[in-house]
Amino acid sequence: MAHFIIFEKREQKVTKKICRYQQFRAVNKIVNRVLAPLQPNSTGRKYRKGLIWHTQGSGKSLTMVFATLKLKTHRTINSPTLENPNILILTDRVDLDEQISKTFLACGLPNLTNINSGYALQEAIHSNPVGLTLLSTIFKFDGSATQAANSHNWIILVDECHRTQEKDLGAYLEKTLPNACFIGFTGTPIQTTDKDTYENFSLPNEGYLDRYSIDDAVTDGATVPIRYTSRKAEWQIDEKKLDILFDNWFAHEPEEVVNKIKARGVKVDHLVKHRERIELLAYDIWAHFSAHGLPQGFKAQIVAIDREAIILYKRELNKIITKSLQKQDFDKETATAWADAMSIPVYSSNQEDDKPSEDIYIDKLR
Predict the structure, then answer these.
(1) Which of 51, 73, 313, 356 has a CA-to-CA distance to 244 between 20 and 30 Å?
(2) Residue 240: CA atoms inside 13 Å, Cβ hemisphere, count?
(3) In the chain, alpha helices (H)
């Protein structure tokens, strides 16, 4: 258990944490896979690899901490592979990189280095290092094609690995560290059609090196079960009938608006964001939430097709909720303020939604 107990320090508070059974199981499998012989599989790709599916909320970041701890400070393993390996923890988003970095630092892992640029990454990898522990985003491998001299001495832990194979980033990583051990982590099941992820992180016919599914988490009591009821409102969209639906739904819209959309080509988002459809669904959302969610003190989340749609729903909900509050004898000013405070659009800062735009319509939305 020496490798599976950590003391996490955050805001002057120290918390002793012991691994859960799926973390113990996965870490030992990872170590065994790292110790596997350096031999190619039938397709000529690396043999030391594995795919870990641990459902969201089950402690993937801590699993990476435990794995790094055992790979670095193993007490019962006598192998040249683990004499002084380099470990690289990869993510595909800055916020995830910061989150994992904070977890590693809080748990007191030694010799931890955050990589802040592509140049720093190349310098670290090609200095023939031993014993490094690096945290970086996959994007810093962009354009990297020179193989590291000691790539066999690297262990790569990739968070949300199904997203790191997009474009050429996965290929750059493979060219730079072709003989490394690649362990991919995901919080959601990988689709059977996602051949790239399985090819890059799984042995033939293995699927997952370790699996802790949503059902497992619910059975353990670590995750509450999801309860839902299906609601089918009017204005459902059949992509096979886009042109027909467009002609029907936009029949009363100004001709210049219709012609402008047709010139660009009719797309699903044009129908999804139709004014009357937004009005209907916003009303249905508020009617259901005010009757079932609000009295119980619950919150609600609306997922829309894009950021423009989020603002359109926000505006319509403000109108609907204001009218609802006025019927309850709130004056207009108070009702408007309360309605506006009841919902908030959530956007990602890396999408630059808060910056000015040359497009007048987009700038007004922002």
Answers:
(1) 313
(2) 0
(3) 21-34, 60-73, 94-106, 118-125, 169-176, 195-201, 214-220, 242-249, 255-264, 268-272, 275-288, 307-326, 332-341, 360-365
For residue range 71-121, list pLDDT tens digits in order. Answer: 988 777 778 778 888 999 998 887 777 888 888 888 888 778 889 999 999
Which residues touch 101 (CB under 8 Å, ≥6 apart)?
A: 112, 114, 135
pTM for the full model? 0.70
Q: Where are the domains of the chain?
A: 5-220, 239-365
Q: DSSP for 5-53?
A: EEEEEETTEEEEEE--HHHHHHHHHHHHHHTS-----TTSS-SSEEEEE
Cα→Cα distances 114→89, 117, 127, 178, Å: 10, 9, 16, 22
Q: Of the candidates 365, 151, 358, which has an alpha carbon nearest to the alpha carbon of residue 273?
A: 365
Rounded (10°) CA dihedral 104, 109, 110, 112? -20
